[in-house]
Amino acid sequence: MYQRIRDLREDRDLTQTQMAEYLNCSQRIYSNYERGDVDIPTRILIKLADFHNTSTDYLLNRTKQKKPYPAG
């Protein structure tokens, strides 16, 4: 899961600091998320999925389908 979050950030040429600002957390906390040192809170996981236009299942490695689910 953590590698996917990092890869998505890097694909958009964003720094950890920029992502941390979007998520309203410190760069250090965001770095901990990417390294897997701390569990990502649900609200942050949803925000990441929305930002990267994907599903939380993709971020959690539960699917290889990057496309988000259709709104229901």
TrEMBL record:
<dbReference type="InterPro" id="IPR010982">
    <property type="entry name" value="Lambda_DNA-bd_dom_sf"/>
</dbReference>
<dbReference type="InterPro" id="IPR001387">
    <property type="entry name" value="Cro/C1-type_HTH"/>
</dbReference>
<dbReference type="GO" id="GO:0003677">
    <property type="term" value="F:DNA binding"/>
</dbReference>
<dbReference type="Pfam" id="PF01381">
    <property type="entry name" value="HTH_3"/>
</dbReference>
<protein>
    <submittedName>
        <fullName>DNA-binding protein</fullName>
    </submittedName>
</protein>
<keyword id="KW-0238">DNA-binding</keyword>
<feature type="domain" description="HTH cro/C1-type">
    <location>
        <begin position="5"/>
        <end position="59"/>
    </location>
</feature>
